Amino acid sequence: MLKYFLVGILLFASQSVFSQSTYQAKIIDEDSGTPLIGATLLFREISLGAVSDENGFVTVKEIPDGTYTLEIRFLGYESQKVKRTFPLETSENPEVFSLGHSEEEMEVLVVQSNRSSRVIEDVPTRVEIIAGEELSEKGNMKPGDIRMLLNESTGIQTQQTSATSYNSSIRIQGLDGKYTQLLRDGFPLYAGYSSGLSLMQIAPLDLAQVEVIKGASSTLYGGGAIAGLVNLISKTPEDEPELSVMLNGTSSLGLDASAYYAAKKGKIGTTIFTSYNKGTAYDPAKIGLTAIPKFDRFTINPKLFWDINPQSSLVLGLNLMREDRLGGNIDFIEGESVSDPYFEKNATDRISTSLNYQNQLSEATQLTIKNSLSFYDRSIEVPDFLFSGKQFSSFSEVNINSQGKKSEWIGGLNLWTDKFTQKEGNEALPLDYTLNTFGAFVQNLWNISEQWTLESGFRLDYQKDYGAFPLPKISAMYKPSDALTFRLGGGLGYKSPTVFTEDAERNHFQNILPIDPKLFDAEKSAGTNLDINYRVAIGDELSLVANTLFFYTSIQNPLLLTPVGSNYEFQQPLGSLETQGVEVNMKWNYKDFKLFVGYTFADVNQQYNDIKSTYPLVAKHRINNVLMYEKHENFWIGLEAYYFSHQQLNDGKTGKSYWIVGLMSEKKFGENFSVFLNFENFLDTRQTRFDTIYTGNLPNPEFRDIYAPVDGFVINGGIKFRLL
């Protein structure tokens, strides 16, 4: 009897063993076919799983019979879920799963600003990219301009230079806007006289991405990029046509209407962007002055894309913009009779062209010829003074790119011309100038090994008035693992003296004395930064991407606008301007939630004649927080909070610290229609609530520095739809 009992136990155990299966799979990248190391395969119902090896293979043993949901996950890729019933039919080969990149990763694949089309992970120079859904979300907040798009990035601040007309400039790591180069598709179109209004006159609907390089970048595109550069990359036509429209309205009675069309047929493609932006005079503080001016702006930007043959292509672009802007005494602007009103009137016209020709000379060598022409006409009128002038500039370049197995060389020549002619102003001392820059450059990208990449460059610029400028630059990237990347770089920069600075803009160029090139040298700089990137998956649902940037830039003998009697003149005392600090960014992803946390510490000081002082209008501490809930292609809502510490002001006083809190949302209905609604600055943080913006009286105000918002709480909302 015992014998039969033991045989029964053995048969039952054998049946239990045979009812358990072993499953093998291989997990690869959908695009390249390369194995994904460390991907997870999970049987959700029984919490059984394994991780793929160096060949992408994953093996799961002792699987009970039954039907299970298999989930395949890898950080940065779209997850897959499949149903399988065990035991499976006998198969000699492992099942293959191909994972595609997530939308977030696909948005930021290629960097263009360093002239080499490489994915962002392979570029030694630190580049920040705003693209895809992030670009769309920020564009919803200010559809008429790019101020908020940039201002909400760590280490970047947009500085308002006019209390009543909203004129603004970019500050990177605390340095004046004149030290940042603003490009459009690699063309320097927004410098000089136009820089004070450019941020206000660029609508973001036709942008594919925005690339930001912080630190000395004059080696890439020439002078003016001491603090860094911002490159606005336009959309290009795809195989499928597109017709997109955005309509936006604000509680301050503003209106934005934009349309973008793109199509490609055979060898010919085209894009057309047009926008109309309208502002209504708005005074939330009830002090009699506009926080938002009255303005009307129309823009049209057509482009032609021609694939001449398989080896060559041509892109031609045209940009036309017209704007009238009026700020000041709100009763006067609204048509009431006012004695001695204060006002600031800006009228601007812009015409620019662009040409980009590429020819694939061989499999490894490409020739590029670029040219742009820019004409800018602007007048600024305040009571008893009118200043106007025309700026004509051009940029021409020819470069050759040669790619090897481990190294890539780029070399070229360029010519940059800039001429300003004053029409109205101080006729005895006009602010006219002509500045021509001849440049030659060479850059190299060298993949030393799988872990090390080196990027080096050298530029030599020459100007008749200020001499030659040798500009070396070097960046190294060390990537010990997929999760950790180090970047270390530095270089030299320069900025040729012109009267078009933030300080001169604040004075409407009134009583500004011209610059004599014989008495001045170009401002020169040296800078370096260390960048550390880390990414990690914490379990199946939680991931973290962290970035830390340490920066330092020193500018020797910077120009200072100094009052002399009733006039203002530029002086160049011996001394320096230095900025140093750290930027920290963390991005947490948990299921449908994203948390962005950013912190900037910027210590900016100036020293002249052994006297050291804090540089004005810099928030030493800034915090950026955004919590986002997002159902991809369906709905998202976000809460944002930004902190600015107190700032030193030009009048010797100290500005208050403050928070700005906003709520943004968008709901999609199908693939082609969405509605967005934003509550910007709903705590109504305004400088006019805790400080003054002017002294004196309303007919003749003396404006103080604008270091906080003046427009306060504004609601905006609208619709976006795609007809094609």
TrEMBL record:
Domain TonB-dependent receptor plug: 121-228
Keyword Signal: yes
Subcellular location: Cell outer membrane
A family per Pfam: Plug
Gene Ontology annotations for the cellular component aspect, listed alphabetically: cell outer membrane
Residue ranges of every copy of the TonB-dependent receptor-like beta-barrel domain listed in the record: 339-681
Gene Ontology BP terms: siderophore transmembrane transport
Gene Ontology molecular functions: siderophore uptake transmembrane transporter activity
Membrane topology of the entry: Multi-pass membrane protein
Keywords recorded for this protein, A-Z: Cell outer membrane, Membrane, Receptor, Signal, TonB box, Transmembrane, Transmembrane beta strand, Transport
InterPro entries: Beta-barrel_TonB, Beta-barrel_TonB_sf, CarboxyPept-like_regulatory, Plug_dom, Plug_dom_sf, TonB-dep_rcpt-like
Similarity field: Belongs to the TonB-dependent receptor family.
Name assigned to this protein: Iron complex outermembrane receptor protein
